[in-house]
Amino acid sequence: MTGTVDVGDSRSLLEVSDQAPADWSDLVDADSLAEYSHTRHWIEAVSGNMPGSRPIWLMIRRDGRPVAGLSAVRGLTRHGFGGVTLKRSCVESSFEGTSGGPVLADDLEPDDQQFLFSALVDRLASLRRGWLGSCSMVLSPRRETQFRAAMEGKPGWTRRETLTALISLEGGEEAVSRDRLGPNKRNERNRGLRRGLKVEVTKDPDLLGKYYRIYTKAARHWGARPAPLSLLADLVNDPNDEVFFTCVRLGDKVVGGHVNLHHGPKVLVWNGVTDPAYAKKYFPATTCIWGDLVEACRRGADWLDLGGSGSMNSLSGFKKFFGAEMHTRGLYLNDAPVLAGVRRLRRLWRERPGVKKADRWHDTLQDPDKRENA
User: Fold this and answer.
1) Were both Cys, which of 66, 119, 138, 339 would link to 335 (CB 3.0–4.6 Å)?
2) Which candidate, 136, 91, 53, 79, places its Cα nearest to that of 338?
3) Cβ count within 10 A of residue 86
4) pLDDT tens digit string along 140-171?
5) Which residues have CB under 8 Å from 316's CB, separation 6+?
6) Architecture of domain 3-163+329-350
7) Whole-prediction pTM value?
């Protein structure tokens, strides 16, 4: 899938390819709002490790210079309803809680940014295939503020509001601990460390593998398909060192961890879970986030993004005790009409009276002495 598209501007040309443009990283560096999920390594890691996936690269050049672009992954996913599972084609400019959407050079005039944003989104929608096909895109809080009105005027797109929890790192580690962590979280951190928890940033594949076993148990509880271990390993070994793995251990036992994505001013806690069996006594979730905060400050980041909480109110409340501010992102879907109908029926089915809502894995706490080898 390669070619060029006229975007209605004699100076600009949109290139479509399944190979990353050689100067893609230059464009990402020219956009101060770009996130790790816009980087070349992220897209290549996701498409290279998710079975049946392949990357899509859209690049707009103006007078030969890269000024705007959009990356996405095309793949097959499964959509279940009423015991029936259907395969469908999806094009995603975001993946498992990350933000996506267009990358735009900072020095573009506002009107140019609006024009090029629209051209990229329209081209993304044109890539939808099949009677169950879909496109999706998540806009970060600042991009959502900038382009929500433009998206609301586009036919075929629907919007869902989703929140993400951001902790300001202004003032560094000491200021975060003193001014933003709630007293209960400081106490939990201190008690966990006194009782023997160790938190470290590591690339050790053995520790990552032990963490992965906890993560897959959590994914089964959530009813979610876990990201492959190969993807996590690929990311942790990012050649630009923009990914770090925070690991929490009790002796030789891994009790949790977080895979963090860092680009520019923001670190995103992307993939993470801790063992609920150790929550009441050792507080590994609190200690792990503290480890994320310390490393994010060391790297000079301005924000630690704890991501969304879905419908799990207890998780949202947990994040607020770290001083997290809730910011709005926009999830945009462009579905084939049949799929849109299936989604509506599925949502009504899930929301019918008597259906148990999703909960945190930690809301089903267990005693480690009773399930040490679970």
Assistant:
1) 339
2) 79
3) 13
4) 999 999 999 999 999 999 999 999 999 999 99
5) 163, 165, 309, 326
6) 3-Layer(aba) Sandwich (3.40)
7) 0.89
